[in-house]
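Per your request, structure below.
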């Protein structure tokens, strides 16, 4: 079953409110020797930038390991049963001949990436000037992996991903470091951990091209433009939509994720959402009317454990910007640049095998239209499941806001959004 909600809300505080290109290779530890160039391939930065679109922005990127040098294998080791070794049997051929073959022998197997036992290669510790952590992973069949990033030594701080689904073939994982920064100190990263969830062992994955990237790019207008003019900036896996000197909204993981009042807080020190996803969100309710296991996204786990998100800018002009967020439970939603686990890159998608689809494959689609005067229109379309996965009821919650939404008269330009033909419409409080 699919339900549709069209909601017109006014962000009251908004309406009242009147930044070289470069690549670095992973620094060597004790040895001063650099990575040798391959006689058969273009220079490392050129071939990486040609293949990965995230590296084509003006910001720098840094290679943690492209697996083209034997010394790089020193930063990979297993905790628990397993084996990591350099191989040329399978790799991202567009970027080089080498890859890491990692064999996980049991559920307790963890692939560690650090330089505690390395003498010729080091894991960079300062990630603070980058927006993305990226790596390519080959899986022979559909699988789930989870990733941890740690900072500090005595009492390590840990960020852990939700389970990340892999398709059969090459997958490109893109982790937004703004999410990681909520849990760890990006200026002191010490270790990466990768685990596999499986029913049969051993499981063998191939890893290639571990990188950090600053993909920041202005895609519409300018944050330094005329007061009140709209702009859109892509950063990590987020979109930032703002009106110069008035407000800025941040969208991440398919939802509204940040809100800043630029008139009183031009340095963006106070997130009016309190540092997490917020705004309007559908919530699955039980038969007694209480949320099922959480609010918003957390309440829909019965639709499937594999959750993927995508963001895209649908339209931008001087009057309004439209951002669409797609949240999919179950099988992957495609190979676009904003999937949490994007599957095969667009360069190889045509030849890639598809994974087994999940039982539901349900989608929640949030379409946000942000007007330059501070009003935001939200269109929500959602598959709410069937059978055991179907909730007793569905609620609409306002999550995380530390300010107040006020009812406002509707501009005639927007009256079509409130027409009787809509499945449901109402101004939000």
């Amino acid at each position: 079953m699919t339900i549709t909600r069209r909601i017109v809300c006014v962000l009251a505080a908004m309406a009242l409110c009147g930044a070289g290109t470069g690549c670095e290779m992973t620094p060597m530890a004790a040895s001063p020797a650099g990575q040798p160039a391959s006689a058969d391939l273009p220079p490392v930065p050129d071939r990486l930038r040609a293949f990965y679109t995230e590296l084509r922005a003006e910001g720098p990127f840094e290679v943690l390991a492209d697996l083209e040098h034997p010394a790089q294998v020193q930063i990979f080791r297993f905790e628990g049963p397993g084996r990591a070794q350099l191989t040329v049997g399978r790799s991202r051929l567009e970027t080089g001949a080498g890859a890491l073959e990692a064999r996980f022998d049991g559920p307790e197997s963890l692939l560690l990436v650090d330089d505690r036992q390395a003498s010729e290669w080091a894991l960079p510790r300062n990630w603070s000037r980058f927006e993305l952590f990226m790596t390519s992973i080959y899986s022979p069949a559909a699988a789930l992996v989870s990733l941890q990033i740690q900072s500090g030594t005595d009492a390590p701080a840990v960020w852990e991903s939700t389970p990340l689904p892999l398709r059969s073939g090459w997958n490109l994982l893109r982790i937004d470091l703004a999410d990681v920064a909520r849990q760890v100190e990006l200026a002191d990263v010490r270790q990466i951990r990768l685990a596999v969830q499986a029913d049969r062992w051993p499981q063998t994955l191939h890893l290639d091209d571990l990188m950090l990237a600053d993909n920041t790019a202005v895609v519409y207008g300018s944050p330094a433009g005329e007061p009140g003019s709209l702009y859109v900036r892509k950063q990590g896996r987020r979109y930032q939509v703002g009106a110069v000197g008035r407000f800025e909204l941040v969208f991440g993981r398919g939802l509204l994720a940040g809100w800043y009042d630029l008139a009183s807080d031009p340095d963006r020190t106070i997130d009016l959402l309190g540092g997490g996803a917020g705004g309007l969100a559908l919530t699955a309710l039980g038969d007694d009317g209480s949320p099922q296991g959480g609010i918003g996204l957390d309440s829909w786990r019965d639709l499937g454990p594999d959750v993927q998100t995508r963001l895209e800018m649908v339209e931008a002009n001087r009057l309004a910007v439209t951002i669409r967020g797609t949240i999919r439970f179950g099988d992957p939603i495609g190979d676009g640049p904003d999937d949490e686990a994007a599957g095969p890159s667009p360069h190889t998608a045509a030849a890639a095998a598809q994974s087994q689809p999940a039982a539901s494959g349900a989608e929640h689609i949030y379409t946000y239209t942000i007007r330059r005067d501070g009003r935001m229109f939200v269109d929500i379309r959602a598959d709410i499941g069937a059978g055991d996965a179907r909730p007793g009821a569905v609620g609409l919650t306002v999550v995380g806001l530390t300010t107040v939404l006020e009812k406002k008269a509707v501009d005639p330009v927007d009256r079509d959004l409130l027409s009787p033909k809509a499945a449901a419409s109402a101004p939000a409080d």
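Residues 5-21, 25-38, 333-360, 413-429 have pLDDT under 50 and may be disordered.

Regards,
D.
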